[in-house]
Every structure is written in C-alpha cells, then in structure tokens.
Amino acid sequence: MQEEMSKLIFQDLGLIKYKDAWDYQEKLHNSLKEEKVSGNQISNEYLLFCEHPNVYTIGKSGNKDNLLLDYLQLQAKNVEFFNTNRGGDITYHGPGQIVGYPIVDLDSRKVGVKKYIWLLEEAIINTLEEYGITAGRMDSATGVWLDTDIPNAARKITAIGVKVSRAITMHGFAFNINTNLQYFNYINPCGFTDKGVTSLAKELGKEQNINEVKAKLKYHLEKLLF
C-alpha cells in the first residue's frame, strides 16, 4: 500500500503488564515520529501482539462512572486500572485475549483515522469468517460486533481504541478469544449498558488455539495494512 515500503517488524510480546507494553509502544511511536519529523523515510513499522494480566483501561474521553468497582474492589480482584491517551471508553484486557498494537504511518498509506479503524475491523471480520462466524460493524460504535441486526442480541467481540500523532498510530484492538468474560460484568464495556460481550471460544463452544488465531489475524492485518 506504500510507495516506498518500510520494513514491518512483528513481535509477539506474550503476557506482559499493560504499563510495560504502553511504555514500549511509546518508545517505538516516538522513534517513528522523530524519523518523520527529520524528513527521513521511516525505516521500520511495527505490529505487536500480546496478552495482559487483568486490567481495565479507559480512553481520554471515557467516563469513569463506567467502572463499577472502587479501588479496594479492584485490589481484591487483582485488577489494575489505567487512564490512557487512546480514544474510546473503558474496556478490559486479560489472558486469552489478543491485544494488537500496530505502530504504522497512515500518511504513507494515504488513509485517515476512520479508514484505518475500518481496516483493523475488516482484518478481524475476515479472521472470524475463517471460523464460520459472520461479524460486522455497528453504526456510531467502533469495534467488531455480532448480530447487530437482531434486537437485544448484539454483542461485541473486539474493542478498538487508537491514538494517532503526526499520522503515526499506537494502541489498537482487543480481540476476545478465550477471555474470561466475567470481568466485563464490572464495567459498562465501551460505555454501553445494553450490549453484550462475547469471545471466539463462547461462540464456538470450546476453547480455541490462540496461536492459530494469531497466525490468521496476522495474515489478514498484513494483507490489508502492509
């Protein structure tokens, strides 16, 4: 998609604390911005996959009332909480979830933020199709959803929240695979009080091979973004 292709570096960080992954993203994000500001061709772009220990994160315009636990309850459940600089409201990250952080230059792709989010959604929709699941989008809401056209059945399988500075992206998506969905009961996910949350394992009735899903998702992301 780029006239002069930079090198894509893919890294699976495994299980990593949210703040450690955030700091690492910031380091890579700043290095790309510095290259761009200096007028140089960006040499490397990044696609990071990881899982996080239990954590709630909220976007810069999110409503803290959507967190239904107080500090002591968070401690009791061994869950961290972070205010972040991404878009979107509150969401949960935990083991069994593919969290993806693309750090790429949108200018070189000639796409804006809305189109970029659409591409992330499309990669996940295409991945789900390989498992026989028809997914789509919901008007006025980011992410990937199931059964949006059936009253009271809409449920979210992927949350998306990004930050873009000088057209360089960071943060990204959280795709529920074998996620413990119980943790979503303690928040209003993405600010919704009337929508459900699901996972690939729940939809298919059994735990999934997360490494297999990662491979399929990586393929579709690279096909659409790189």
Topology summary:
Blueprint: E1 7-15, H1 18-37, E2 44-51, E3 55-58, H2 71-76, E4 80-83, E5 90-93, E6 97-103, H3 113-129, E7 136-138, E8 141-146, E9 155-165, E10 168-176, E11 196-197, H4 200-204, H5 210-225
Parallel strand pairs: 1-2, 3-4, 9-11
Antiparallel strand pairs: 2-6, 3-5, 6-10, 7-8, 8-9, 9-10
Helix pairs in contact: 3-5
Summarize the structure.
The chain is of the alpha/beta class. The chain has helices spanning 18-37, 71-76, 113-129, 200-204, 210-225; strands at residues 7-15, 44-51, 55-58, 80-83, 90-93, 97-103, 136-138, 141-146, 155-165, 168-176, 196-197. It has one domain (7-225): BirA Bifunctional Protein, domain 2 (2-Layer Sandwich), CATH 3.30.930.
Note down, in words, how this protein is organized.
This protein has 226 residues and is α/β, with parallel strands linked by helices. It has a single domain (7-225), classed as 2-Layer Sandwich (BirA Bifunctional Protein, domain 2), CATH 3.30.930. It has helices at 18-37, 71-76, 113-129, 200-204, 210-225; strands spanning 7-15, 44-51, 55-58, 80-83, 90-93, 97-103, 136-138, 141-146, 155-165, 168-176, 196-197. The strands form two sheets. Strands 1, 2, 6, 7, 8, 9, 10 and 11 form an eight-stranded mixed beta sheet that branches. It is globular, with a radius of gyration of 17 Å. 35% of the residues are buried. The mean pLDDT is 94.
